[in-house]
DNA sequence: TCTTTTCTGTAACGACCGCTAGGGAAATGC
DNA sequence: GCATTTCCCTAGCGGTCGTTACAGAAAAGA
């Protein structure tokens, strides 16, 4: 029996036959984002999810596939809604240094924002995970971020904005390490001001221009 | 019925009455260290533990109490066997700067040492943990490390070794963030050389003397 | 109205979780 | 030899995990 499989909110594809679903898929997804963000993939059970999403298990499975597919959608939603500040900084700031400075500054605020879980979902939600593909998917996202940092730094070197002998990969790794450490400390209770101080100190590694 | 409760290897307290245990408690504990270190508290099941320790579940419970007590003993064993390099550096190096430099350099090696799990058990093994006391116990250890960094920096300020207006708490937090970020990246596949480059870059924040 | 389609709620599946009762087995002291 | 103490193994406890069968309810099309 073929199932409709993960019916995203059908816009005007026909006329929506049969009984319509009684919950808003987007707001349910947002609640799942918060739950996975706070407790991680494994520690968030399906019954936790059905409770915070306000739906029954069969509705969850009909709308999102299974727990792993829901998590993948959660990660994508998190990326566009909460995790896009790094990409924006890399694209909008005139130099790699300015981009990293903005990323660290904004991370201090994002990772301690009131009313939502602290730290970064991509960094924490799939650590110590018994499902290897889930752990690997977030690891790939983290490493992709390092590559994005590195590419931006390389562009500045090519443009003469940074010294030719600067180790782009190492500087990118350093920026990533500071971001990841700040996220960990946000989870451990650090305040926005404390993380901003860390960000400011960390920026002193960049060569004087 | 009162149980003997966690009989540590009885030295010469009497003559060891009854049937002696058939496994070596220390080597079994070491296997538990490696298992918890690699997969974390929740993701390491009791049956995982009994397998790698080579004993049955009742033997495990008789010798170590329960899973949580075993984990506490594992954390202590990890601290003395693998995690003591930070305390040594803080105690032995002549300045805070030298201590942090040594900590970062040694962390690059420790967190990527072949033949054992990468990264730091204290940083990773209790993230996304459904047992709040376990998560909290490692969080306290991490925050205690930050305080130790801060105290060492304050001592250098008091001795005139560092500027009087230097923000000891922020510098301590920065060092901790770099260490935690390096540990995360070690788990994500970074090599010792890559982490040593990060460590070297991170040391450039310290004021010129 | 009646059929068709799709969603919802109940209730349960098999698997694994941390943990332990209970009966022998192996050492001691006498 | 015997009784005592302690350990190990088998087997299973109650509970939760992710997932789904099934039947009834609610919409559309005829």
Outline the structure in words:
The structure is a homodimer of 209-residue chains. With 209 residues, chain A is mostly helical. Helices cover 63% and strands 0% of the residues of chain A. Chain A contains ten helices and no strands. The longest helix of chain A has 27 residues, at 132-158. The radius of gyration of chain A is 20 Å and the shape is elongated. Mean pLDDT of chain A is 93; it is low at 1-13. The first copy, chain A, binds a DNA duplex (30 and 30 nucleotides) through α3.
Please describe the biggest sheet of chain A, giving its number of strands, its sense, and whether it closes into a barrel.
none
Number of strands of chain A: 0
Largest interface between protein chains, with number of residues from each side: A-B, 43 and 43 residues
Order of helices and strands of chain A: HHHHHHHHHH
Low-confidence stretches of chain A: 1-13
What's the N-to-C terminus distance of chain A? 66 Å
How much β-strand is present in the residues of chain A? under 5%
Q: What best-fitting shape of chain A do the alpha-carbon axes yield?
A: elongated
The number of helical elements of chain A comes to 10
Overall SS class of chain A: mainly alpha
Radius of gyration of chain A: 20 Å
Work out the helicity level of chain A.
Answer: 55-70%
Secondary-structure blueprint:
The structure is a homodimer of 209-residue chains.
Chain A: H1 25-39, H2 46-53, H3 57-64, H4 67-81, H5 85-92, H6 96-110, H7 121-124, H8 132-158, H9 168-187, H10 192-202
The structure holds a DNA duplex (30 and 30 nucleotides).
């Amino acid at each position: 029996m073929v199932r409709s499989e993960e019916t995203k909110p059908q816009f005007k594809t026909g006329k929506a036959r049969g009984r319509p679903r009684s919950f808003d898929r987007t707001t349910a997804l947002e609640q799942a984002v918060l739950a996975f963000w706070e407790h991680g993939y494994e520690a968030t059970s399906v019954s936790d999810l059905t409770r915070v999403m306000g739906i029954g298990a069969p509705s969850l499975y009909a709308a999102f596939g299974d727990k792993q597919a829901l998590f993948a959608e959660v990660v994508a939603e998190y990326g566009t809604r909460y995790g896009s500040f790094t990409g924006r900084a890399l694209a909008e700031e005139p130099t790699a240094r300015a981009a990293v400075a903005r990323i660290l500054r904004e991370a201090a605020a994002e990772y301690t924002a009131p009313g939502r879980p602290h730290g970064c979902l991509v960094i924490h939600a799939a650590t110590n995970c018994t499902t290897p593909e889930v752990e690997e998917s977030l690891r790939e996202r983290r490493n992709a971020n390092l590559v994005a940092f590195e590419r931006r730094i390389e562009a500045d070197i090519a443009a003469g904005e940074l010294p030719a002998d600067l180790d782009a990969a190492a500087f990118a790794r350093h920026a990533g390490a500071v971001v990841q450490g700040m996220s960990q400390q946000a989870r451990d209770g650090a305040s926005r001001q404390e993380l901003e101080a860390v960000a400011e100190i960390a920026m002193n590694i960049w060569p004087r221009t």
